[in-house]
Amino acid sequence: MSETRELSAEIAQCQACSLAITRLKVVPGEGREDADILFIGEAPGWHENQQGRPFVGPAGQLLDDLLVSIGLNRSEVYIANVIKCRPPNNRDPLPAEIEACAHFLDRQITIIQPRMIVTLGRYSMGKFFPGESISRIHGVARARGGVLLFPMYHPAAALHQPSLRKILETDMAKIPSLLTKLTDVGKTEEKEDITQLTLF
């Protein structure tokens, strides 16, 4: 069994917060264990709670379309969430729930070792950019320790506010060239210098 599957099995048994009582299915995440890109959403919704898979509802369809627009599909990336169980009535995750799941997400990052982490929405953005505003920093990549951190709006936001779809499309279109730029920088810069680099 792969490391991500072993971790997923462990997550499925988690009773660390009250969401263990209300969930139907745990949604650990899925994708390539050696993916270059890790997408991190916020929390499972209704469809995800039914299927035990991330981003399978309308927001997931939009994410799939965005991936296709840059020549990728979901089997080539890894997709996870900040928390692994659906909050009742799709409410926002609570701080205690985020804290209870934090070590699972950290371990996923350690196993996958992505070259790029794309945060989708303000809760996943907050893990890496605490105190920042998504309206201000979306679409701007920052390289730390040789890994690109790239905040984007959550696809669900574009479903509620159609004007955000163009922003999502524009931000997604930057990803291929940013990965290329990271590779080029890695050939010429020391790792400690990369941690201070901001890529636009």
SSE order and pairing:
Blueprint lengths: L2 H10 L6 H4 L7 E2 L5 E5 L4 H6 L6 H12 L8 E4 L13 H18 L3 E5 L1 H7 L5 H4 L3 E4 L2 E6 L2 H6 L2 H11 L1 H14 L2 H4 L3 E2 L1
Parallel strand pairs: 2-3, 2-4, 4-6
Antiparallel strand pairs: 1-3, 5-6, 5-7
Structure, briefly:
This protein has helices spanning 3-12, 19-22, 46-51, 58-69, 95-112, 122-128, 134-137, 155-160, 163-173, 175-188, 191-194, and strands at 30-31, 37-41, 78-81, 116-120, 141-144, 147-152, 198-199.
How confident overall, as mean pLDDT? 91
Low-confidence stretches are 187-200
Q: Give me the side-by-side strand order of the main sheet.
A: 1-3-2-4-6-5-7
* Estimated radius of gyration: 16 Å
Any idea of the CATH topology? Uracil-DNA Glycosylase, subunit E
Query: Span between N and C termini?
Result: 39 Å
